[in-house]
Amino acid sequence: MKPVRRASKTLHSVRKSKSEKVIPDLLKSWNGIAAQIRRRGRVIIFLDFDGTLVDIAPRPELVRLKPEAQDVLRQLAKHPLATLVVVSGRRRAELLEHIGVPDIHYFGLYGWERDDHCALPPDAQKALRAAREALEPLLRKYPNLWIEDKNSSLSVHLLHVAKARHEALRKELLTVLEPFQRKLHAVGNIRDVEILPRSIPGKGLAVKEFLRDTTVKKSLPFYFGDDYSDESGFAAVGRGVSVHVGKARPTKARYRLKTPAETAEALGRILGVLDEIEKG
Ligand SMILES: [Mg+2]
Q: Around Cβ 7, how many Cβ atoms within 10 Å?
């Protein structure tokens, strides 16, 4: 009995402290971060895209990467002491188009789509098509709702639905998806619900696999993300530097930043430390 009681108490206290704790601002903690980078000598940086590198736009295709952010990404990507991975819910081709920087690892669909040859098994595709049809009545009930068919997942966008209706809508959505739960799962994000085949497990696993397989074991890992789907990524970098970007909310991340512009600033500072190390 004892270990069980202890475990549940720990879980409770962790949950309580996570929601109450104000985590430190990354830029204000910079001296400590710079010292860690110098100690390890190189970095692996995982970056979410929407809400982390770019401001959210009314529709996904309208986002724009600012030239200063693109410039620092370009310099970091070719830096001998840095490895960059963009891991997003978007398709890989879209990430390439929006960011346009070579020498970055682009992981689409929550880290599952790592090259141009990823294809879903036919039964997962069939389940997605059936789920899309089952969601049709919800589109009539909530006229501002729209469903983006990403071909290997469905994004149900809530951005234009009144906030007061979100909770009811999320519940209805899960009820509609119940018959598909053997083949599909839903990931609740801030502005959308993503319906994914079970074979696409989420960002955390992609990050863990990349860290396990990388030849550069001693790199200091960073993970920058804004959404609930980034929480598994924060956890996956462990004692590395996990950074929640955006309005404060309970999170597993160890640091925070307010905006994508601050993400670009932090990347610039990382670059500065790496340049110093390189020059010796
Ligand atoms: Mg995001």
A: 10
pLDDT at 127: 95
Q: How confident is the model at residue 20 (pLDDT cuts 50, 70, 90)?
A: low
Cα distance from N-terminal residue to C-terminal residue, the chain: 56
**Residue partners of 91: CB distance under 8 A and separation at least 6:** 108, 109, 113, 150, 151, 152
Domain that includes residue 269, residue range: 22-116+201-279
| Ion ligand 1 — residues with CB < 5 Å | 48, 50-51, 226-227
CATH number at residue 142: 3.30.70.1020
Q: 6 alpha carbon to ligand 1 midpoint, in Å?
A: 35
Å from CA of 164 to ligand 1 middle: 22
Pairing of strands 184-188, 192-197: antiparallel
* Residue 242, beta-bridge partner list: 223
- Rounded to the nearest angstrom, the distance between the alpha carbon of 264 and the centre of ligand 1 is 15
Q: Across-strand partners of 11?
A: none
pLDDT of residue 21: 72
Question: What is the DSSP-derived secondary structure letter of residue 78?
Answer: T
Please, what is the average pLDDT of the chain? 90
